[in-house]
Specification:
This protein is an alpha/beta fold. It has 2 domains: about 190 residues, Isopropylmalate Dehydrogenase (3-Layer(aba) Sandwich), CATH 3.40.718.10; about 130 residues, Isopropylmalate Dehydrogenase (3-Layer(aba) Sandwich), CATH 3.40.718. It has 11 helices and 12 strands. The protein has a 10-stranded mixed β-sheet with strand order 2-1-3-12-11-4-5-10-8-9, sandwiched between helices. Strands 6-7 form a two-stranded antiparallel sheet. Strand 1, helix 1 and strand 2 form a beta-alpha-beta unit. The protein starts with a strand and ends with a helix. Bound molecules: 1,4-dihydronicotinamide adenine dinucleotide and magnesium ion (MG). The site of magnesium ion has 2 residues, from helix 8. 1,4-dihydronicotinamide adenine dinucleotide (NAI) binds next to loops.
Length: about 350
């Protein structure tokens, strides 16, 4: 059976790491017909098109699932982040970002196995922003809704239940942000009562950041609002070896877009040195989502082997291989494992 999926290579290191992922999926024997859309973000704006062209949205709506590379967002000016727009337009309200220690990789901690569940459509990223030129005052409104909070918190608990996880921590700043973070925390307490078998607690975000860099092994599922979830997931990526290895998924009730936590990394773009592991592991999450468990497991096990053996690792994780050398070596292992 062939899968019809959308591929957004993105920009910066995006095309390099998504191509690596496509190769490895092919090596696993999964038959995918990709609908590729290269024109997005600055590439689209330069051609006089919207940063998020309608054909990209249409493709994902039709096919249901996408694999996406990072897209650069101009800082402090220019178009609204394509990444944020896409999550809002497609109502991909749950951003799932696991951070798990990889055996063989030398990091300060060994037993980290946690998942950040970030609310992906509202909060401080709602896009409600003003600058009053007369008064020189800037406002960015954090809009938190009961519905938005409830669905991400419920998603987190249900995920925990399905995946045999035991503990949910809600990250907030309800001591200061009494309305927005306060609402999120209240709803967390309400929803948690429906899942008595899952332990629930909450942490004020600043304290949680400190705890995470001291005792990350003690955390399991962490649910939070948009901005905090964004920050926490880069922090937890750093605990397990960096942005080169940590995957992610944007999930809604109907549609899903899989992408790494990292951005377009302009500092290393076009050099064939980016680590494609994060994108490949995002593809593993995607394969599970579309029911290709065997292929997902084969790729995942092969990634673990590569790290255990230190085979063809990229410079960010202490090796000297290129993006394509890593992809070649991985594809070969995967083919061997699926009996190709
Ligand atoms: P970044 O995540 O692109 O890079 C941060 C640092 O990590 C850089 O030193 C980079 O070289 C390194 N890095 C990231 N991914 C790597 C990989 N796969 N292998 C090896 N090293 C890697 O964050 P930065 O520089 O703050 O943002 C660059 C651009 O990316 C910005 O325009 C930002 O808006 C955009 N961005 C896009 C995202 C998306 O498309 N979902 C997510 C985050 C940022
Ligand atoms: Mg981020």
């Amino acid at each position: 059976m062939s899968h019809h999926l959308t591929l957004l290579p993105g920009d910066g290191i995006g095309p390099e790491v998504t191509e690596a992922a496509v190769r490895v999926i092919e090596a696993a024997g999964v038959d995918v017909v990709w609908d590729r859309h290269r024109v997005i973000g600055a590439t689209a704006v330069d051609r006089g098109r919207p940063a998020l062209p309608p054909d990209v949205v249409d493709s994902i709506q039709e096919r249901g699932t996408a694999l996406k590379g990072p897209v650069t967002t101009p800082v402090g000016k220019g178009f609204t982040s394509v990444n944020v727009q896409l999550r809002q337009r497609l109502d991909l309200y749950a951003n799932v970002r696991p951070a798990t220690s990889l055996k063989g990789l030398d990091t300060p901690f060994e037993g980290v196995d946690l998942i950040i569940f970030r609310e992906n459509t509202e909060g401080l990223y709602s896009g409600i922003e003003y600058f009053d030129e007369r008064l020189d005052i800037a406002d960015s409104i954090a809009r938190v809704t009961k519905r938005g909070s409830e669905r991400i918190i419920r998603f987190c608990f249900e995920y925990a239940q399905e995946h045999g996880r035991e503990h949910v921590t809600l990250a907030h700043k309800a001591n200061i942000l009494k309305k927005t973070s306060g609402l999120f925390l209240d709803i967390g307490r309400e929803v948690s009562a429906e899942f008595p078998e899952i332990e629930f607690d909450d942490r004020i975000i600043d304290n949680l950041c400190m705890q995470l860099v001291v005792n990350p092994e003690e955390y399991d599922c962490i649910v939070s609002t948009n901005l905090f979830g964004d920050l926490l997931s880069d922090l937890t990526a750093g605990l397990v070896g960096g942005l080169g290895i940590t995957p992610g998924a944007n999930i809604g009730d109907e549609l899903a877009v899989f992408e790494a936590v990292h951005g377009s990394a302009p500092d290393i773009a076009g050099q064939n040195v980016a680590n494609p592991t994060a994108m490949i592991r995002s593809a593993v999450m995607m394969l599970r989502h579309i029911g290709e468990e065997d292929a997902a497991a084969a790729i995942e096990q092969s990634v673990f082997e590569m790290y255990r053996e230190g085979d063809a690792l990229t410079p960010d994780v202490g090796g000297d291989a290129t993006t394509s050398e890593f992809a070649d070596a991985l594809a070969e292992r995967v083919t061997g494992m699926v009996g190709g």
